[in-house]
Specification:
Elements (H helix, E strand, L loop, with lengths): L1 H12 L5 H21 L7 H10 L1 E2 L5 H22 L7 H11 L4 E4 L6 E4 L10 E3 L5 E3 L6 H15 L7 H15 L6 H15 L12 H15 L3 H5 L7 H22 L27 E2 L4 H11 L5 H8 L3 H13 L3 E4 L6 E4 L2
Antiparallel strand pairs: 1-6, 2-3, 4-5, 7-8
Helix pairs in contact: 1-11, 2-3, 2-4, 4-5, 4-8, 4-13, 6-7, 7-8, 7-11, 9-11, 13-14
């Protein structure tokens, strides 16, 4: 941790860095993080397809449209946590996590059962109503919190975080790792829990001025094995995992510290002009040749700016124009134009003042 703190102080001393460089770093992280975090959960988009989608709003290939929609929605979630993290007056809430789950999963959808015999509906933004568990590498069943336990454990988690953060007894890296582990042991939603754990870990780092980190999909086994070691230390009871101590999750904190240290060193090299390659994951070498805006495409993205706006304000009615622009990575002028179009079409209306009101969707 001492080395991380030293690197962090040096990183902060260089702020603000050149705007063009910061923009390139943000763009690279957006692609790397969205690709790796989603690919870890089974998304089939290649790095090149992800880049084409997020930079130019276009798609190519025969991947499932659901994978395209979730990649775009996950990026909206990334922008959402950045907006929330910078609002130091707004405490973390369960409602924010429910909104985040709705957004990254792009609404309710159906999933096929493990045995392939039936479909069931995933209700996004609400805590699970059926048990969820995993089969470990040893073939053993490992249970997360039950649906009955989940509301109380999530309440505990949020209260703990909001009380612990201002104490500053834990470093941001320790706080991020511990929140990730406690959250993942609850597994509160029917889907999207791994992605939310990594988003929230970066929410905490970003909130404290650290550069956000990518866990490469190539490290998936190491990442899961490390979480498994912590499970052995905390025990199988979900309550124990959801209230794990820093000592019990030391292997995981050490792993996250390595990623943070590596990212800080890399960011410092970029800021000092010692390296020019922006992507830190090495995934650039694996990309397919679909990186130019002029490339021909055979499928157009089905999620427009207007559809994204409707989806976000449906879950987050008090969202501001500035927040929408950041979430969707477009200009505020574009947001204003699309909001006016939606208003003129009678699809939305503003209730109350611009400052304290909220958006209402007309069905």
């Amino acid at each position: 941790m001492n080395n991380i703190e030293k690197l962090y102080r040096e990183w902060r001393s260089l702020q603000p860095i050149d705007k063009a460089l910061q923009r390139r770093m943000d763009q690279s992280f957006m692609i790397d993080f969205n690709y790796n975090s989603n690919h870890m959960e089974g998304n089939t988009l290649t790095y090149g397809q992800t880049k084409l989608l997020l930079l130019f709003g276009k798609v190519k290939g025969d991947a499932l449209m659901r994978d395209y929609e979730e990649m775009k929605a996950h990026n909206a979630g990334l922008e959402m946590i950045k907006v929330q993290a910078l609002d130091k007056e707004r405490p973390l809430s369960e409602s924010f996590l429910r909104d985040l789950n709705r957004i990254i999963l792009a609404g309710d959808f159906y999933k096929l059962s493990n045995n392939g015999e039936y479909r069931y509906k995933i209700h996004t933004g609400v805590y699970k109503t059926r048990p969820n568990s995993v089969i470990t590498f040893s073939g053993e069943m490992f249970d997360y919190a039950s649906p009955e336990e989940t509301p109380a454990l999530m309440n505990d988690l949020i209260r703990w975080y909001n009380a612990e953060e201002p104490k500053e007894e834990l470093s941001p890296v320790e706080l991020a790792a511990l929140f990730h582990y406690r959250y993942i042991r609850i597994h509160p939603f029917e889907d999207g829990n791994g992605r939310i754990a990594r988003l929230m870990m970066n929410y905490i780092l970003y909130r404290h001025g650290y550069p956000m980190v990518v866990i490469p999909t190539a490290d998936r086994k190491k990442y899961l094995d490390t979480l498994g070691k912590c499970d052995e230390a905390t025990g199988k009871m979900p309550f124990s995992g959801a209230h794990a101590t820093l000592e019990q999750i030391k292997p995981f904190t050490d792993l996250i510290s390595l990623y943070v240290e590596r990212k800080l060193k890399y960011a410092l090299q970029l800021a000092k002009g010692e390296v020019s390659e922006i992507s830190e994951t090495g995934i650039e070498q694996q990309k397919d040749p679909v990186e130019s805006e002029n490339v021909s495409v055979n499928v157009s993205v089905t999620v427009s700016v207007k559809e994204n706006i409707l989806h976000i304000i449906g879950q987050f009615p008090t969202v501001t124009v500035k927040e929408l622009a950041k979430m969707l990575v477009v200009s505020e002028r574009t947001i204003y134009r699309n909001l006016n179009d939606l208003r003129n079409a009678g699809k939305i209306e503003r209730v109350g003042s611009d400052k304290s009101g909220y958006w209402k969707i007309n069905h």
